[in-house]
Amino acid sequence: MNLALNDKQGKSVFGFIHAWNGLKAITRTERNFRIHIMAAVFAVAAGLAFRLSVIKWSVIILVIGLVLIAEILNTAIEKMLDYLKPDLHPQAKFIKDLAAGSVLVSAVIAVLAGMLVFIPELYKLFR
To answer: Which of 26, 31, 39, 72 has the fewest CB atoms within 10 Å around its CB?
Structure first.
């Protein structure tokens, strides 16, 4: 029983290491991911400066997560298709466009949510 528990813990640690390596790789290699990270850092800094409520922080954290997850999945889909279909097949292009579209939708949602959160804060500041 104890051995099985240790084996599960080892697999969890091993899985975490792979996940961490994936995040390091996408940060190192994908310009758009770095842009999204910088936007997230800016949003967090603004949230700290405005001392956002818990509800507003929840919105900011959720949309940051939404955009980063969409970008990670988009990159994974693109890399997989590049590996499987080095010559761009029309279906592969369609799939890549869909994945990129999901990033665009998530980014637009994040911008709209950011406006709903930060415009009232800016209004209070300059009132």
So the answer is: 31
